[in-house]
Amino acid sequence: KMSNSRNGRPAERLEILRNVSKDLWIRLEDVKTSLLDPELPWTEKSLKKAREIMHKKFPEYPSLSELEKSQGPQELQSRSQKICEQLEDWYLAFFDFVEWKEESWKLLTELADDFFCPEYVENPDFYALILEILCSYVQLTLLVAQIQDRESLISFYAYCYQYASGSAEVGFSRIAQHLSVQTVDKCSALSFLRKQFLDLPTGHMLRRVSMVDYVGKLLLGSGDGLGGVLGVYQNLSRKELCRECSAGVLGVMLRPEEVQYPSGLGLDEKDMFLYHDLPDMSRMLAWMTWGLFACPNLIFRHKGGVELMKEVVMAGWRSDERSLELNIHEELYEVWHDKAFLAELERAVPDKKLCREHKDEFRRAIEHCVCAAPALRAQRQQALLSALSLILHQLQDCPALLGPHLPLVRSALALARDEAAWFVRHQAPFPR
Fold first, then answer.
1. Is residue 358 a contact partner of residue 301, using CB atoms and an 8 Å limit?
2. Cα 283 from Cα 298, distance rounded (Å)
3. What's a GO cellular component annotated to this UniProt protein (predicted)?
4. Torsion angle, CA of 143/292/330/411, rounded to 10 degrees?
């Protein structure tokens, strides 16, 4: 699959990479869980010395001669075939992850170099592919940074593979260099990502556009929020998007006037809006949040960056999916107290009054979100009850005709997920 992503049209390559990323999530989460097992080879007392030597030399290839001078290599050598079989699937997950990242970054920089972005409403599917790859790029990197004993895994596998087969494992150096530079821990992984998004790409790019500017183009469009994801999201929030765009462009199955509701039911404007647009808004909010998380410099590099920050902060977005926990309030609080970020902000915006206004916008957005949170949750609870009531009436009336009402089911699932997550998060006191 990965080799196919090097050929074909950009949309086809993006589709392949997105499908591969879903499989990688499952495999890497399995690796993360499996490496918590206390009975793995490198946890054995007899192999403690070998593990220390491998860690000391990492990311260098584990030397057979040095290990032979230590205690325990005989046991490791005698079990090399069995250990290879035990670790192979986990090792290959890391190998595929590194290859996926390289292919994804190459394609994204090619797209950024073209710097041609139609408006979101003109090609929402293509936008979605690009932004989902960007989000997966960030999420997978942070996930790998949380996996314990990953260095031990690839070092033990490389040593046992060479002893069992008689040839060196050629993929070790790529994986080891990646882990030692890009994913040491969450902080270093995040710092590397943000630097990578800011740096100009190398190679034979014509315009050499940095990824942060490309992300800004996708999210903010022409610079004032129009044409990008932010503009569409705000229009949906205000219920101002025309019905033709809502039905035809955002993937709704039928126009509102063509929808056949269960007998005896009528939807008012608010319910109709929920029926059509809530799942799309949920995706857009995720794209904007991860984009701002990876590229906080969007706040002052692009016109409309402050509006993007306000929308994300006021939504109070949190993610606990895919073994990652992201609280955008806490993350942006750290950004606004980072000396390097503030220094760059002051260089980019020499006007001290404007810098102060940006900071005040962030503070006011936080305060608004905290104050509005109870009312917003009550509103979403009511919307969930309304959606479930509609589904219940449909099942009682004509269960065979539930298919045309799939958007309503998707909306109910999205609301139910948020409600369940709220209860889980508030089982313990919220951190100050």
1. no
2. 19
3. SCAR complex
4. -80
Share of the chain above pLDDT 90, in %: 11
DSSP letter at 201 equals P
**Range of 59-68, 163-172, 222-231 with top mean pLDDT:** 163-172
Dist. CA 90–CA 102, nearest whole Å: 19
Element (H, E) at 180: helix 172-181
pTM of the model: 0.78
SS3 at position 63? coil
pLDDT digits (tens, 9 = 90+) for 249-290: 333 333 334 333 333 334 444 444 454 566 677 788 889 989
Report whether 230 contacts 122 (CB < 8 A): no
Is residue 228 left, alpha or beta, with left meaning phi > 0 and alpha meaning psi from -120 to 50?
beta
For helices 406-425 and 269-294, what crossing angle results, to 10°?
Answer: 60
162-181 residue pLDDT tens: 877 778 788 888 888 888 87
SS (H, E, C) 156-175: HHHHHHHHHHCCCCCCHHHH
φ, ψ of residue 428 in degrees (nearest 5): -115, 155
